[in-house]
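W.,

You were right to be curious about this one. When I first looked at the sequence I had no strong expectations either way, so I just let the prediction run and decided to look at it fresh. Below is the sequence, 296 residues in total, followed by the output.
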Amino acid sequence: NGALTAWSTSSGQKISTMQETGSAITTLAVSPDGATLFCGDCNSAMTAGVLTAWSTSSDQEINTMQAKGSPVNALAMSPDGATLFSGNFNGALTAWSTSSGQKINTMQETGLRINSLAVSPDGATLYCGDNGGALTVWSTSSGQKNNTLQEQYAIFTLAVSPDGATLYSGNSIGALTAWSSSSGQKINTMQETGSAIDTLAVSPDGATLFCGDRNGALTAWSSSSGQKINTMQETGSAITTLAVSPDGATLFSADEELSVWSISSGQKINTLKDQHVNTLAVSPDGATLFSGDYSG
């Protein structure tokens, strides 16, 4: 359990196995300079987890930021790389200094399980989706909650457009929604119902939203029209995570396989691994893909 692996995005070959085994890896985040990988995990009983920092050059663990506590279920990085935000199974929402590894602020002590976090491109706002359907908006400077955009069903995934104008959410009944980040109002319900949506990713130009659901459907949506523009995969194993290369050419998806897709053609171009991957992160230069496993 818990393999942490670095892959070459150009060759598709494994560069290194940073961790062979351990607790299931639930979430990853890379610093903007690409030097540090942050990793959250969960034990088999789903009762405890740790938050660790790894050097991407040496592949060594360099810090344990949370040594014990509730499993870490979501991570998001500030654009300047100074702050890492974590969301836990017990609803704890925490801000951490990436330089010292110390806790800066506990924005929320407890609550419902936090499933997803996203930071606005200007770094001023943190979005948080929880298991009760609350989509909350937080000031990163004050650590205070500014707004709650309430949904009826559990929010599993969030993504922000590169210009920061639009927030996207996917929930447990398959609703795919676009929100105005300035007003907090719903702009569009792109899909009313369907299979639960566990992962979203936006293209670097903001034109396309990619969506993965529990029926294995991988779809592409126009952010301007809100319409589906391509079904890259109809069905399969549940898609747990998506990541887009910084140049916008490649989409990475994980279900029972770790797959590589051409965004222009919508076709699968490679399979890197045939075991279950739970979370992905791409280095800022696009050269390295990091994967975290349920099973190594």
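Here's what jumped out at me. DSSP finds no helices and 28 strands in the chain. And, maybe more interesting for your project: The two ends are 5 Å apart (CA to CA).

Coffee later to discuss?

I.
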